[in-house]
Amino acid sequence: MPLVDERELLLPALKERRAVGAFNANNMEMIQAFVWAAEEMTEELGKPVDLIIQLSPGASKYAGWALGAGMVKIVAQETNIRIALNLDHATKLEEIEKALENNFTAVLFDGSSLPLEENIELTRKVVEMCHPRGVPVEAELGKIPKIEDYFSKDEIAHLRSLPAKEAVKIIRERAGKSVEELMAKPEDVEMFVEKTGCDFLAAAFGSIHGIWDDIWPVRVDRLVEIQKRTPLPLVSHGSSGILMTPKDVEEKGIELMEGEGTLLDAIQTGGVTKVNVATILSVSFIQGFIDAYNANPSEKDFRNLGKVARDRVKEKVKEYMRLFAGAIS
Ligand code: G3H
Ligand code: ZN
Fold first, then answer.
1. Which residues are near ligand 1 (CB < 6 Å)?
2. Cα 222 vs. chain centroid, distance in angstroms?
3. 328 confidence band (pLDDT: 50, 70, 90)
């Protein structure tokens, strides 16, 4: 079927207290993995599983805008899964224009690096560009930092080698206070939503972009305060790093501080309806490719490695889809 408007996926999900996965694609294999995962989960759960495929401006330039969006449109045509195509983290109006030219069915304008007033002004402009074309707009309030803001590449490599509990302790010491200060302020929410006219709100609630595995707790208490002030679907960013369930917290030995919780809590009690996942899928693809190559270093056929990588991504996506549908706790 044709691509669908992202509102058609998120508004029913909000009512039902479930989430829709928004997965970032970087190549054809990832797009296939997402759609196949949704098809298999629809079968497994016995109810339709919706899908948001995201391309960042970087990924759109990597593939070429027309080819990147074109691949998503073609897979959508060939499946019964309802798919929305979102431009992720646009920071320039030209990028929004490109998304509209290429029939994206949602955009995120990320003005979080700007002072609040400028963020509001530019987001409003994006809404004025998109709404007449029937395209909804996600906006960002507060700032979701990235792990590279706090650690060098070598330090990140070291953190990745540590047990989750130790890595979390080090990240808390170095980044915890700053991440907290960057969270969205509940008192800004109503005014921001009203002035911008946005459709979905990515309000920072303590997550960090770019963590390689699900180890990091988020501030569900802040999310609850934010949710009280807007009826819009809320969006979780930096979700690769967020602990998925209370069971994971226990298994990984992470100590939760006051107000902290998991992705499951964020969905069930915090009103999170769209969950953006990128890094963990990129890591799964790379690791799948490396493992397949190491298992057969004389392999010359790219496809035999690509298939393994694609399958790893598909399995990871299915894990998230089970969680978002409320099928794991
Ligand atoms: O917008 C994309 C997401 O926020 C992805 O974050 O790479 O940490 O999963 P992540
Ligand atoms: Zn993000």
1. 24, 88-89, 209-211, 237-241, 276-280
2. 19
3. confident
